[in-house]
Design goal:
The chain is mainly α. The chain has helices at about 1-55, 60-90, 95-100, 105-120, 135-145.
Length: about 150
């Protein structure tokens, strides 16, 4: 009878070892699959970002920033033409242009900028100061006239 009990115990131990071994193998397989999925997702994300940026796709924020920059350029160009129109409407416009023509190139730039700033030609109605780049663009336009 003891030999039968010993055999049963041995079979039970062997069965427990086999079950533990199968659980360890299943756990290792599950961990390997999870790692493979995570690495695949990470690699796919990186490749997608690299591919989309290399073909020129932009995020919404970069499109908005580019549109704002382009709008500012156009606004400065519009303000420059308004500035020139304001100069031409002044009663002393002909005299000022003749004065600018008489100056040398290096003196002309400073004189035109000072005139635009003092006369507030680049400052639009309702504003305290001209927009960024408006004085430079207006000065370039007036120097072409002079």
């Amino acid at each position: 009878m003891t030999s039968t009990n010993n055999m049963d115990r041995e079979r039970a131990r062997e069965n427990e070892r086999r079950i533990a071994s199968e659980k360890a193998l299943d756990r290792a397989t599950r961990v390997r699959r999870t790692k493979d999925i995570i690495w695949s997702a990470l690699l796919a994300s990186v490749l997608t970002i690299v591919f989309l940026t290399s073909i020129g796709w932009l995020t919404t924020q970069s499109v908005v920033n580019a549109a704002r920059a382009e709008g500012m350029k156009e606004l400065v160009a519009l303000r420059s033409s308004i500035c020139v129109a304001n100069l031409q409407q002044r009663p002393d416009a002909g005299a000022k242009l003749a004065e600018f023509r008489a100056l040398s190139y290096s003196e002309k730039d400073a004189a035109v900028r000072k005139f635009i700033t003092d006369a507030k030609l680049a400052t639009m109605v309702g504003e305290d100061a001209p927009a960024d780049g408006a004085i430079e663009k207006c000065a370039d336009a007036i120097k072409r006239l002079a």
